[in-house]
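During data preparation, we tokenized the protein backbone, and the record follows.
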Amino acid sequence: LLDVMAQLRPFHMEWDFGDEPGPRHPKEYLRDLAALRANDPSLKSTSAFTSESLLDESAVEIAEALRGNTHLELLDVSANRIGAVGARAIADLLREQASITRLDIDRNLIGDEGAAAIAAVLAQSNLEIIFLNSNSITDAGAIAIAAVLPACTKLQSLGLWSNNIGDEGAIAIAAGLAENKTITRLCLQGNKIGVAGTRAIAESLKVNSTLRDLKYDTQTRMGTEGAVFFAAALKVNTGLVNLDVSTCQIEDEAAIAFADALRLNSTLEGLFLSRNLISAKGGIAPMH
């Protein structure tokens, strides 16, 4: 199979929570908190709130500071220690806060309870991009998010990578994706999705023409059988531009199936298959 992909920029999951909870740079934290309360029009994002070892109490404080704020666009509280209580405070804020279009709450501890709280307001919010990666979200949290996807008319990018989502959660996401008309980028890499969940996601691609980028790498439980379902979907899908199934234990049979599919598919530009189990036999299968 000819390699038509440029290597994706690697995602480095390296961060330091620090030794003690609470703001590690209190001066910057308090400065931005005061700016939020004052509705400072120059403050569009919250870079001072990332990697600060913030707990739920700080998330609640930030949410309260944002009441009445009309300028913040990116709420970034990534790489902290925020749990379900903090996630609920942020969710309550999103019910009424119109300016925030992007939420980065990845690499925290919100779990299924926090994911469900955010899911409950997702369709009502103005969020276009949300990152919930590395939050110990399981099938239950994924199902809560999936249930509201058909009603989300503004969401464009959903990040759920490096959680503990399995087949049940993936099947629910697939059902929601089949009815969603706005999401163009979905990141599910590094979960625990097997053949059944992969088949459901692939089937959703047969009816969804909006999704452009699907990050599905490091799904070692899907294997060749799951990849073949993706290949079958590519024969009829008319929207996907990039599909990443690197490091998924894919063998020659799937590579050949992808080559056959790409003879019919005219929209896919990037098919990422690195770090799989494809031999020279699968590697030379012509794609056009």
The CA atoms of residues 171 and 200 lie 5 Å apart. The beta strands are 74-76, 102-104, 129-131, 157-159, 185-187, 213-215, 242-244, 270-272.
